[in-house]
């Protein structure tokens, strides 16, 4: 499958502010809302990478229209790519301020410096270095310029022609394949998903553990979409199952064994080569499960969810249609 | 739906924790929830440089595990009131009258409002067709018709039941294919039922079909599903003496939310502060305002903070859902599996209001051909109004639906040509620099790599598709057929 990152054509900017304190730890201000996917950790890792410090040294403050800069939101799998780019650019501005301050102290020009391992070091001569906190403190107390940087980012798009749909709607796309192994009971139509192998592209994985988390979570939603979930209406248009008893969705007992494989890739337009992975994880799941059902029992279910009743009815119909053999 | 639901007693969170086993009730056995002083060991991955690529644990993970996370429902303010919204319960109707006198007279009820109290009762990310509370018409059964703020949730619920609404009920339009027909009465008359269309035209499909050895057709349908976040929508609104409102909300898009609240209430955005707390799951369902303007008005009327949380049924009937799709595919291929032309028609069930339908329509249309090199393509996509729950943003925006269609369709083609499903995809998949259906040159493309890596990891043994014949694994001895795909 393929899936785009960011909004369709429309501007979806994110802005971020990074400030560095005298102990070499940073604070990131972002308008994005953490919805449980771990985006604040990813943004901390991106800022930490740019400044050469550790993830734990970045404190992320988010989601307050008074205190944090504007962000379009955690939608369209855009946070790592768009907000991540904004955070990285803001951190880069802080880094360049530090280089300007540290250069005369280390006796070099600013473009000879790099930030790594909590230090500002001279490229190619790491023995000549200063702790990042000392540089920040010097900037604040002596030079009088506390290190702070702000930036925004928006993917470049081209509007779609209304008649032919031609244009450049998204900055970048991600790709993935999922393969499922299912067991179908041909006497009841019950489908059990045994194993899913998911091979996902997300550019550089900023945090492989969180990518795996997204894949597993997406697959659980995909299993529900493929086999169980459905909102039902009566003839008057009123929902008849608006509760968790009758709206069937996967539990841990329904989850298959999931093997996650992250495809090596690098996207130059993303922060450190990263793209995104939030939504793509659930996109191919229903298709691979339904294809597996076809492979198992030879019935093509063309409407979701593929409940046991549907599968059973299809198996019966197939059997009835086959020419019958009479044994002598 | 004729019987009024029994109003449950509000169970405090502490009670639900200690419901069982009863051994926990014995105070001599209860261990403290948090042991002081707190010894926090920072995991190594969080302290390593370089930071990118580390399997760093999340800070909120520890809080979630200890049950320490503060969600909106955990926030309490002095004098806080609870609000409940009365839902229509009918899918298509005109409101003839609303009688709130009995509800307003109840002890403990501090304010009651209806659609008439909303200064500008229309909002929406693209089409502003959604009311905050129903104005004169009800378009789906989850439409809010009135809101009550009371000193307890119980009283608010009882007051809602005492509000009498007189409806003129119409026949609802429920089938999107019916809604597509021009003869069907408009759900939002005088607006047409088809409220958005998108087209993609590339090459010449008639020429492509003529050049094909086989033409395969298929129709696929998907259902309406809901996000079912663990944490339902929750909001608290309160004003200060300077006329500034602070809104704590599970809203995912706080900048857009602020703009919508400003326009519906008729106040400048500088008078609004929105704070989003850690949200217990969004998946797209919390990207637009729901009760925020209602609570802001109730809070203004009563002079007290007002909180509202959705119940689980509210989540299903009154928040957005995923668009059901009806997808028609027609593909022409040559004997060796190469796609020559593809024609697609998508019909999206757009529910009662537009919400995020325009984005979903666009994405579904653009992605509908799949990650395959197709020179001749025609895709048309329509979204129609129905009197069902509003369909909006949900993880994938149309992609899971069309992927189900184009990947099932691909396996059907593979079966017809007696090809391995893996091979037919490798023949057609995008390469680095391929041109997308919208004419965009693609970079960092790894479709084939992901196919091959997944196949290798899975142990794909080639020609998996055996037209439904069973391949029993050696140890399998049950009636179920277990086959590798």
Describe the structure.
The complex is a heterodimer of chains A (328) and B (485). Chain A is of the alpha+beta class. Chain A folds into two domains: 148 residues, Aldehyde oxidase/xanthine dehydrogenase, molybdopterin binding domain (Aldehyde Oxidoreductase, domain 4, 2-Layer Sandwich), CATH 3.30.365.10; 150 residues, Aldehyde oxidase/xanthine dehydrogenase, molybdopterin binding domain (Aldehyde Oxidoreductase, domain 4). Chain A is built from six helices and eleven strands. In chain A, the strands form three sheets. Chain A has a four-stranded mixed sheet with strand order 1-9-10-11. In chain A, strand 5 and strand 6 form a beta hairpin. The longest helix of chain A is centred in the first third of the chain and has 28 residues. Chain A starts with a strand and ends in a 7-residue tail after the last helix. With 485 residues, chain B is of the alpha+beta class. Chain B folds into two domains: 177 residues, Alpha-Beta Complex (Aldehyde Oxidoreductase, domain 3), CATH 3.90.1170; 187 residues, 2-Layer Sandwich (Aldehyde Oxidoreductase, domain 4). Chain B has a seven-stranded mixed sheet, sandwiched between helices. In chain B, helix 10 runs parallel beside helix 11. In chain B, 51% of the residues are buried. The C terminus of chain B is likely disordered. The chains are: A alpha+beta (328), B alpha+beta (485).
């Amino acid at each position: 499958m393929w899936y785009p990152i960011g909004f369709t054509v429309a501007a979806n900017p994110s802005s971020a502010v990074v400030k560095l304190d005298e102990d070499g730890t940073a604070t990131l201000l972002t308008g994005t809302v953490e919805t449980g996917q771990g985006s604040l950790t990813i943004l901390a890792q991106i800022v930490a990478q740019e400044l050469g410090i550790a993830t734990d040294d970045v404190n992320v403050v988010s989601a307050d229209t008074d205190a944090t800069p504007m962000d379009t939101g955690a939608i369209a799998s855009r946070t790592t790519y768009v907000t991540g780019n904004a955070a990285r650019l803001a951190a880069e501005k802080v880094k360049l301020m530090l280089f300007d301050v540290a250069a005369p102290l280390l006796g070099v020009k600013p473009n000879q410096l790099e930030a790594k391992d909590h230090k500002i070091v001279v490229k190619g001569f790491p023995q000549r270095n200063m702790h990042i906190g000392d540089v920040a403190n010097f900037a604040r107390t002596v030079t009088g310029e506390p290190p702070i940087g702000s930036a925004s980012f928006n993917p470049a798009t081209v509007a779609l022609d209304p008649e032919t749909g031609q244009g450049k709607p998204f900055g970048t796309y991600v790709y993935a394949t999922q393969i499922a192994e299912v067991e179908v009971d041909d006497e009841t139509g019950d489908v059990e998903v045994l194993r899913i192998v998911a091979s996902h592209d997300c550019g550089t994985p900023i945090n492989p553990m969180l990518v795996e988390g997204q894949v597993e979570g997406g697959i659980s939603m995909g299993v529900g979409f493929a086999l169980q979930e459905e909102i039902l209406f009566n003839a008057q248009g009123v929902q008849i199952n608006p509760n968790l008893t009758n709206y069937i969705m996967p539990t841990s007992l329904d989850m298959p064994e999931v093997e996650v494989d992250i495809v090596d890739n690098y996207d130059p337009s993303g922060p450190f080569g990263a793209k995104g992975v939030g939504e793509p994880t659930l996109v191919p799941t229903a298709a691979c499960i339904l294809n597996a059902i076809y492979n198992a029992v030879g019935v093509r279910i063309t409407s979701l969810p593929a409940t046991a009743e549907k599968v059973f009815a299809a198996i019966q119909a197939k059997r009835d249609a086959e020419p019958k053999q009479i044994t002598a | 739906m004729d019987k009024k639901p029994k109003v449950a007693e509000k169970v405090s969170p502490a009670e639900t924790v200690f419901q069982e086993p009863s051994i926990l009730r014995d105070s001599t056995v209860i261990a403290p929830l948090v042991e002081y002083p707190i010894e926090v060991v920072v995991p190594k991955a969080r302290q390593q440089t370089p930071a990118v690529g580390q399997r760093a644990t999340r800070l909120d993970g520890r809080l979630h595990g200890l049950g320490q996370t503060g969600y909106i429902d955990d926030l309490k303010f002095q004098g806080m009131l609870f609000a409940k919204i009365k839902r229509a319960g009918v899918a298509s109707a005109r409101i003839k009258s609303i009688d709130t006198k009995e509800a307003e007279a109840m002890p403990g009820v501090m304010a009651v409002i209806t659609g008439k109290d909303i200064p500008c009762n229309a909002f929406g990310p693209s089409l502003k067709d959604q009311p905050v509370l129903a104005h004169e018409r009800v378009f789906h059964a989850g439409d809010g018709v009135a809101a009550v703020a009371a000193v307890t949730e119980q009283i608010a619920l009882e007051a809602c039941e005492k509000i009498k609404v007189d409806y003129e009920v119409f026949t609802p339009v429920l089938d999107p294919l019916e809604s597509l027909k021009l003869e069907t009465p408009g759900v939002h008359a005088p607006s047409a039922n088809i409220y958005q269309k998108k087209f993609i035209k590339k090459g010449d499909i008639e020429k492509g079909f003529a050049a094909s050895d086989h033409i395969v057709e298929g129709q696929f349908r998907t259902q309406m599903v809901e996000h079912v976040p663990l944490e339902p929508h929750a909001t608290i609104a309160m004003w200060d003496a300077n006329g500034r409102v602070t809104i704590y909300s599970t809203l995912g898009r706080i900048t857009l939310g602020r703009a919508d609240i400003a326009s519906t209430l008729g106040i400048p955005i500088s008078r609004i502060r929105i704070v989003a707390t850690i949200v217990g799951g969004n998946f797209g369902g919390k990207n637009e305002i729901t009760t925020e303007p209602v609570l802001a008005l109730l809070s203004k009327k009563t002079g007290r903070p007002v909180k509202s949380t959705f119940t689980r049924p509210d989540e299903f009937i009154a928040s957005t859902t995923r668009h059901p799709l009806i997808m028609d595919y027609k593909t022409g291929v040559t004997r060796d599996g190469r796609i020559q032309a593809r024609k697609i028609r998508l019909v999206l069930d757009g529910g009662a209001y537009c919400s995020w339908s325009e984005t979903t329509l666009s994405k579904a249309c653009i992605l509908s051909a799949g990650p395959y090199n197709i020179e001749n393509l025609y895709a048309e996509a329509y979204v129609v109004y129905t009197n069902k729950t509003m369909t909006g943003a949900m993880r994938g925006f149309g992609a899971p639906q069309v992927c189900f269609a184009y990947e099932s369709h691909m396996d059907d083609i593979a079966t017809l040509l007696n090809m391995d499903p893996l091979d037919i995809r490798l023949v057609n998949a995008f390469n680095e620099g391929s041109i997308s259906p919208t004419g965009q040159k693609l970079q960092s493309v790894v479709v084939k790599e992901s196919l091959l890596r997944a196949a290798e990891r899975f142990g794909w043994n080639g020609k998996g598709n055996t037209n439904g014949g069973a391949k029993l694994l050696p140890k399998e001895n049950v009636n179920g057929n277990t086959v590798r795909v």
